[in-house]
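Agenda item 2: magnesium ion complex prediction
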Amino acid sequence: MIEDFAHAWRLYRAAETRLPTPPPRHTLPATGLATGLREILAQGLHDAVILDAWGVLNLGDAPIPAARDAFAALRASGLAVRVLSNDAGSDPEQSSARHTRRGFAVAPEEIVFGLDLLAPTLAELGVAAEDCVLVSPRPAPRAAITAPMLDLDDPRAMDAAAIAFLSTVGYTEATDARLRALLRHRPRPVLVCNPDIVSPEPEGIAIEPGFHAHRLAAELGCAPTFLGKPFPGVYAAVMRTLPGVPAARVLCVGDTPHTDVLGGAVAGMDTLLVQSGFLRGRSGAEISALCAEAGMAPTYLAPHL
Ligand SMILES: [Mg+2]
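Presented output:
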Protein backbone atom coordinates (compact mmCIF):
# COMPACT_ATOMS: atom_id res chain seq x y z
CA MET A 1 0.00 0.00 0.00
CA ILE A 2 3.03 2.29 0.34
CA GLU A 3 4.05 3.01 -3.24
CA ASP A 4 7.51 4.44 -2.72
CA PHE A 5 9.66 6.73 -0.59
CA ALA A 6 7.91 9.88 -1.84
CA HIS A 7 4.56 8.46 -0.72
CA ALA A 8 5.93 7.54 2.72
CA TRP A 9 7.46 11.02 3.08
CA ARG A 10 4.10 12.65 2.24
CA LEU A 11 2.44 10.55 4.94
CA TYR A 12 4.96 11.73 7.56
CA ARG A 13 4.54 15.36 6.46
CA ALA A 14 0.74 15.04 6.63
CA ALA A 15 1.01 13.65 10.17
CA GLU A 16 3.14 16.55 11.46
CA THR A 17 0.18 18.24 13.18
CA ARG A 18 0.01 15.22 15.49
CA LEU A 19 3.79 15.02 16.08
CA PRO A 20 5.85 17.07 18.52
CA THR A 21 6.87 20.52 17.26
CA PRO A 22 10.55 20.58 16.21
CA PRO A 23 12.72 23.02 18.16
CA PRO A 24 13.81 26.14 16.23
CA ARG A 25 15.85 24.91 13.32
CA HIS A 26 19.54 25.47 13.23
CA THR A 27 21.63 25.30 10.10
CA LEU A 28 23.31 22.01 9.45
CA PRO A 29 26.84 22.84 10.65
CA ALA A 30 29.76 22.39 8.32
CA THR A 31 31.08 19.71 10.66
CA GLY A 32 27.73 17.94 10.46
CA LEU A 33 28.73 15.65 7.63
CA ALA A 34 30.40 12.62 9.17
CA THR A 35 31.68 9.34 7.84
CA GLY A 36 30.08 7.60 10.79
CA LEU A 37 29.87 7.16 14.53
CA ARG A 38 33.61 6.75 15.17
CA GLU A 39 34.38 10.18 13.77
CA ILE A 40 31.73 11.74 16.02
CA LEU A 41 32.84 9.88 19.15
CA ALA A 42 36.41 11.08 18.58
CA GLN A 43 35.18 14.62 19.32
CA GLY A 44 34.48 13.60 22.95
CA LEU A 45 31.15 15.46 23.05
CA HIS A 46 28.98 12.60 24.27
CA ASP A 47 28.54 10.37 27.34
CA ALA A 48 25.83 8.09 25.97
CA VAL A 49 24.63 6.89 22.58
CA ILE A 50 21.01 5.94 21.93
CA LEU A 51 20.63 3.71 18.90
CA ASP A 52 17.59 3.04 16.80
CA ALA A 53 17.72 -0.58 15.64
CA TRP A 54 15.73 -1.00 12.42
CA GLY A 55 17.56 0.80 9.62
CA VAL A 56 20.63 1.42 11.80
CA LEU A 57 21.75 -2.01 13.06
CA ASN A 58 19.62 -4.22 10.83
CA LEU A 59 17.23 -4.19 7.91
CA GLY A 60 14.81 -7.06 8.26
CA ASP A 61 16.73 -9.91 9.82
CA ALA A 62 20.00 -8.98 8.13
CA PRO A 63 22.61 -6.94 10.00
CA ILE A 64 23.88 -3.80 8.24
CA PRO A 65 27.52 -4.84 7.78
CA ALA A 66 29.18 -1.45 8.34
CA ALA A 67 27.22 -1.02 11.56
CA ARG A 68 28.98 -4.00 13.17
CA ASP A 69 32.40 -2.34 13.19
CA ALA A 70 30.96 0.96 14.39
CA PHE A 71 29.11 -0.85 17.17
CA ALA A 72 32.30 -2.61 18.25
CA ALA A 73 34.06 0.77 18.35
CA LEU A 74 31.20 2.18 20.40
CA ARG A 75 31.53 -0.64 22.92
CA ALA A 76 35.29 -0.11 23.04
CA SER A 77 34.71 3.58 23.82
CA GLY A 78 33.04 2.61 27.11
CA LEU A 79 30.15 5.05 26.57
CA ALA A 80 26.71 4.05 27.81
CA VAL A 81 24.70 2.42 25.03
CA ARG A 82 20.92 2.15 24.79
CA VAL A 83 18.70 0.84 22.03
CA LEU A 84 15.49 2.87 21.79
CA SER A 85 12.97 1.04 19.68
CA ASN A 86 9.38 1.45 18.50
CA ASP A 87 9.18 -2.32 18.03
CA ALA A 88 6.08 -3.41 19.95
CA GLY A 89 6.30 -7.06 18.94
CA SER A 90 9.10 -8.27 21.21
CA ASP A 91 10.03 -8.62 24.84
CA PRO A 92 13.45 -7.22 25.80
CA GLU A 93 14.95 -10.72 26.11
CA GLN A 94 13.83 -11.68 22.58
CA SER A 95 15.07 -8.40 21.18
CA SER A 96 18.41 -8.73 22.99
CA ALA A 97 18.88 -12.26 21.63
CA ARG A 98 18.16 -11.11 18.06
CA HIS A 99 20.54 -8.15 18.23
CA THR A 100 23.25 -10.30 19.79
CA ARG A 101 22.86 -12.97 17.10
CA ARG A 102 23.29 -10.26 14.45
CA GLY A 103 26.56 -9.10 16.01
CA PHE A 104 25.28 -6.34 18.33
CA ALA A 105 25.58 -7.53 21.91
CA VAL A 106 22.91 -5.56 23.78
CA ALA A 107 21.58 -6.61 27.17
CA PRO A 108 17.81 -6.61 27.78
CA GLU A 109 18.30 -3.80 30.34
CA GLU A 110 19.89 -1.64 27.64
CA ILE A 111 16.76 -1.70 25.47
CA VAL A 112 13.91 0.78 25.96
CA PHE A 113 10.65 0.46 24.05
CA GLY A 114 7.60 2.68 23.65
CA LEU A 115 5.79 -0.46 24.73
CA ASP A 116 7.36 -0.01 28.20
CA LEU A 117 4.93 2.91 28.67
CA LEU A 118 1.80 0.82 28.07
CA ALA A 119 1.34 -0.46 31.64
CA PRO A 120 1.99 2.90 33.35
CA THR A 121 -0.25 4.71 30.84
CA LEU A 122 -3.14 2.30 31.45
CA ALA A 123 -2.60 2.71 35.20
CA GLU A 124 -2.74 6.51 34.81
CA LEU A 125 -5.99 6.16 32.90
CA GLY A 126 -7.35 3.82 35.55
CA VAL A 127 -7.98 1.14 32.91
CA ALA A 128 -7.51 -2.54 33.80
CA ALA A 129 -5.91 -4.81 31.19
CA GLU A 130 -9.15 -6.86 31.16
CA ASP A 131 -10.98 -3.72 29.98
CA CYS A 132 -8.56 -2.95 27.12
CA VAL A 133 -8.71 -4.25 23.54
CA LEU A 134 -5.47 -5.61 22.05
CA VAL A 135 -4.51 -5.12 18.40
CA SER A 136 -1.61 -7.55 17.99
CA PRO A 137 -0.99 -11.17 17.12
CA ARG A 138 -0.95 -13.46 20.16
CA PRO A 139 1.00 -14.27 22.16
CA ALA A 140 1.87 -10.59 22.49
CA PRO A 141 4.92 -9.29 24.35
CA ARG A 142 4.55 -8.09 27.98
CA ALA A 143 2.26 -11.05 28.67
CA ALA A 144 1.51 -9.87 32.22
CA ILE A 145 -0.45 -6.95 30.82
CA THR A 146 -1.38 -8.06 27.28
CA ALA A 147 -2.57 -11.64 27.95
CA PRO A 148 -5.72 -10.53 29.84
CA MET A 149 -6.63 -7.99 27.13
CA LEU A 150 -9.65 -8.50 24.88
CA ASP A 151 -9.45 -9.52 21.24
CA LEU A 152 -11.01 -7.11 18.76
CA ASP A 153 -13.76 -9.61 17.92
CA ASP A 154 -14.66 -10.25 21.56
CA PRO A 155 -18.23 -8.99 22.14
CA ARG A 156 -16.98 -7.12 25.24
CA ALA A 157 -14.59 -5.10 23.03
CA MET A 158 -17.44 -2.84 21.90
CA ASP A 159 -17.59 -1.16 25.32
CA ALA A 160 -14.02 -1.70 26.53
CA ALA A 161 -12.37 1.37 28.06
CA ALA A 162 -9.26 1.58 25.84
CA ILE A 163 -7.49 0.08 22.83
CA ALA A 164 -3.81 -0.92 22.77
CA PHE A 165 -2.42 -0.98 19.22
CA LEU A 166 0.89 -2.89 19.09
CA SER A 167 1.32 -4.38 15.65
CA THR A 168 0.10 -4.46 12.07
CA VAL A 169 1.01 -8.15 11.70
CA GLY A 170 -2.24 -9.84 10.66
CA TYR A 171 -3.99 -6.45 10.33
CA THR A 172 -6.60 -6.76 7.55
CA GLU A 173 -9.47 -4.73 6.11
CA ALA A 174 -11.70 -6.56 8.59
CA THR A 175 -9.45 -5.48 11.49
CA ASP A 176 -9.64 -1.90 10.30
CA ALA A 177 -13.44 -2.04 9.92
CA ARG A 178 -13.85 -3.48 13.41
CA LEU A 179 -11.56 -0.84 14.93
CA ARG A 180 -13.55 1.92 13.24
CA ALA A 181 -16.84 0.39 14.44
CA LEU A 182 -15.54 0.39 18.01
CA LEU A 183 -14.38 4.01 17.84
CA ARG A 184 -17.63 5.20 16.21
CA HIS A 185 -19.63 3.37 18.88
CA ARG A 186 -17.61 4.90 21.70
CA PRO A 187 -14.59 7.20 21.46
CA ARG A 188 -11.90 5.98 23.85
CA PRO A 189 -8.14 6.18 24.33
CA VAL A 190 -6.13 4.46 21.57
CA LEU A 191 -2.62 3.76 22.84
CA VAL A 192 -0.27 3.37 19.89
CA CYS A 193 2.82 1.50 21.06
CA ASN A 194 4.56 1.75 17.68
CA PRO A 195 4.05 5.28 16.30
CA ASP A 196 6.06 4.55 13.14
CA ILE A 197 4.06 5.14 9.95
CA VAL A 198 6.25 2.92 7.80
CA SER A 199 9.33 0.78 8.11
CA PRO A 200 11.90 0.09 5.41
CA GLU A 201 12.02 -3.59 4.49
CA PRO A 202 14.85 -5.29 2.59
CA GLU A 203 12.43 -5.01 -0.37
CA GLY A 204 9.96 -2.13 -0.25
CA ILE A 205 8.27 -0.29 2.60
CA ALA A 206 5.92 -1.80 5.19
CA ILE A 207 3.01 -0.18 7.04
CA GLU A 208 3.23 0.22 10.82
CA PRO A 209 0.58 1.06 13.45
CA GLY A 210 1.19 4.82 13.14
CA PHE A 211 -0.12 4.65 9.56
CA HIS A 212 -3.51 3.41 10.72
CA ALA A 213 -3.56 5.58 13.86
CA HIS A 214 -3.01 8.80 11.89
CA ARG A 215 -5.64 7.74 9.36
CA LEU A 216 -8.15 7.03 12.13
CA ALA A 217 -7.30 10.39 13.72
CA ALA A 218 -7.79 12.24 10.43
CA GLU A 219 -10.97 10.42 9.43
CA LEU A 220 -12.72 9.83 12.76
CA GLY A 221 -11.37 12.76 14.76
CA CYS A 222 -10.00 10.54 17.51
CA ALA A 223 -6.78 11.55 19.27
CA PRO A 224 -4.42 8.57 19.57
CA THR A 225 -1.88 8.52 22.39
CA PHE A 226 1.52 7.67 20.94
CA LEU A 227 3.89 5.91 23.32
CA GLY A 228 7.12 5.64 21.32
CA LYS A 229 9.46 7.85 19.32
CA PRO A 230 9.30 10.79 18.53
CA PHE A 231 7.08 11.52 21.57
CA PRO A 232 8.73 12.75 24.79
CA GLY A 233 7.61 10.01 27.19
CA VAL A 234 9.94 7.36 25.85
CA TYR A 235 12.92 9.74 25.92
CA ALA A 236 12.18 10.49 29.58
CA ALA A 237 12.09 6.71 30.13
CA VAL A 238 15.48 6.16 28.52
CA MET A 239 17.02 9.10 30.39
CA ARG A 240 15.88 7.55 33.69
CA THR A 241 18.24 4.68 32.82
CA LEU A 242 21.13 7.17 32.33
CA PRO A 243 21.31 8.96 35.69
CA GLY A 244 23.64 11.96 35.75
CA VAL A 245 23.89 12.17 31.95
CA PRO A 246 22.63 15.52 30.58
CA ALA A 247 20.52 15.29 27.41
CA ALA A 248 22.99 17.61 25.65
CA ARG A 249 25.71 14.93 26.10
CA VAL A 250 23.57 12.23 24.42
CA LEU A 251 23.85 11.28 20.76
CA CYS A 252 20.68 9.83 19.28
CA VAL A 253 21.18 7.74 16.12
CA GLY A 254 18.40 6.83 13.72
CA ASP A 255 17.35 6.46 10.10
CA THR A 256 14.00 8.30 10.10
CA PRO A 257 13.76 12.12 10.38
CA HIS A 258 10.23 12.26 11.83
CA THR A 259 11.09 9.56 14.37
CA ASP A 260 14.72 9.72 15.42
CA VAL A 261 15.82 13.27 14.53
CA LEU A 262 12.60 14.93 15.69
CA GLY A 263 12.38 12.95 18.92
CA GLY A 264 16.05 13.39 19.79
CA ALA A 265 16.01 17.12 18.99
CA VAL A 266 12.87 17.72 21.08
CA ALA A 267 14.57 15.86 23.96
CA GLY A 268 17.58 18.21 23.65
CA MET A 269 19.98 15.60 22.28
CA ASP A 270 22.41 15.62 19.37
CA THR A 271 21.23 13.50 16.46
CA LEU A 272 22.97 11.40 13.85
CA LEU A 273 20.80 10.61 10.83
CA VAL A 274 22.03 7.60 8.88
CA GLN A 275 21.27 6.76 5.27
CA SER A 276 21.17 2.97 5.72
CA GLY A 277 17.42 2.58 6.29
CA PHE A 278 14.42 4.74 5.41
CA LEU A 279 16.63 7.15 3.41
CA ARG A 280 18.69 4.60 1.51
CA GLY A 281 19.49 5.70 -1.99
CA ARG A 282 18.94 9.42 -1.21
CA SER A 283 21.85 11.85 -1.50
CA GLY A 284 23.02 13.99 1.41
CA ALA A 285 21.81 17.12 -0.39
CA GLU A 286 18.37 15.63 -0.95
CA ILE A 287 18.13 14.52 2.70
CA SER A 288 19.18 17.94 4.00
CA ALA A 289 16.53 19.56 1.79
CA LEU A 290 13.84 17.11 2.96
CA CYS A 291 14.71 17.69 6.61
CA ALA A 292 14.74 21.47 6.09
CA GLU A 293 11.29 21.48 4.51
CA ALA A 294 10.04 19.63 7.64
CA GLY A 295 11.78 22.12 9.96
CA MET A 296 14.39 19.61 11.10
CA ALA A 297 18.18 19.58 11.05
CA PRO A 298 20.11 16.53 12.24
CA THR A 299 23.35 17.40 14.01
CA TYR A 300 25.18 14.87 11.85
CA LEU A 301 24.43 12.97 8.67
CA ALA A 302 26.36 9.82 7.71
CA PRO A 303 25.96 6.94 5.27
CA HIS A 304 25.66 4.43 8.13
CA LEU A 305 26.41 3.96 11.82
MG1 LIG B 1 14.56 2.89 12.25
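Discussion summary: The chain has two domains: 5-16+28-115+230-302, 117-226.
Owner for follow-up: CH.
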